[in-house]
Structure prediction request, 454 residues.
Amino acid sequence: MNPLTSQSNLGAIDAAHHLHPFSDMKQLNEKGTRIIARGEGVYIFDAQGRRYLDGFAGLWCVNIGYGRKEIAEAVQRQMNELPYYNTFFGTTTPPTTLLAQKITAHTGGRLNHAFFTNSGSEATDTWFRMARVYWKALGHPTKTHVIARRNGYHGSTVAGASLGGMKHMHEQGNLPIEGISHIGQPYWYAEGGDLTPDAFGRKMARELEAKIDELGEENVAAFVAEPIQGAGGVIVPPATYWPEIARICKARNILLVADEVICGFGRLGTWFGHQHFGFEPDLAPVAKGLSSGYLPIGAVLVSDRVAKVMIEEAGDFNHGYTYSGHPVCAAAALENLRIIEEEGLVDRVRTDIGPYFAAALKSLEDHPVVGQVDTVGLIAGVQLAADKGTRRRFAKPDDAGMNVRNHCLENGLVMRATGDRMLASPALIISRSEVDQMVETLRKGLDHLRDTMT
Ligand code: PLP
Prediction:
């Protein structure tokens, strides 16, 4: 028995000493923390031994599922050989270099270089600085402004929270910092009005063009967006959106940054989300599925266009983290990518379990409180609605989401709610019967909402 897990008073210790991220600590301490002690496949087990189907793969990250011994073994081997060395001042370690080769190999020759970080937030800070260094090195020092989207999410550091378009994050800490602007999001269900999804997609993309005109092209470095907004509610853009965004970035000569922290490593049935939508970013932050969350590691994938300038023109890039390319994290990531490759998980999502998951979840569209179900690969957003005919939302959207989410949790299913959207993002190894179990429990949660809220 793991002595850390068997300690009996963990709840009290947690309340006394542990401040949790994204939590109202007063409420949490009153209710008590759920202590997760073990994981196996798509299941997690709490300290009392209760089993939950994790419909969210941790935080959109445990792509290969829990309990893979191969990763533990790869980590142990690397720990014994070299637990740490850095990548500053002209050094590297074997797993770090091999990981750079392996990740970039899946970008179809587009993003051939990797700069390592420990998280998605650090990857955001990294490309944000790199984009400015790039333009300065090219003789355009005024090209510094970055355009992002309302309700986007790019992390919790000062730059990450500023680039993200989350009002509740901006309100804490006088954000965003200078040099960042936000445009609207392609959320047709809530904001599309009478427009068709395609017309709305084009309209929202053209907000980028208008914002560049307002700021002056000579002042804009980059536009950043998630291929599918994750934390914002799994907002799948209309088909017209990304082609128009890509066209505008090219025409106006600004860098296009695809935040692949959630969409990367098979989630959409392609190695990266931009491949699903068919556009070519200049920079792409990644994390999460890179190691399936087994150890913290992220990276910025860099196109030849940007790397050439960084290598040949920019001189020292005065940026990096003590643990950039940490050898043990890199060994875990290498083993994770080997598993994804050898088990054909990306193809499985595209051709087998993804379509099954889509059909199973779409069956919920017959439910009176479901307005629309959006899925791509193994990510889904289920839109709750008080009146599906008119797309009328519940008066208290957050309460509606929490109503369903809590019912699911009480019945052994972890889902996430963003406002009145129920989000799912299970491990890529989920079986058909586990998908069925997930949808059945979710349907009961929707019944509970119908019976308890109007
Ligand atoms: N970018 C996106 C799209 C994310 O979803 C997240 C985290 O959820 C981040 C960046 C930040 O990553 P991290 O939490 O590893 O710092």
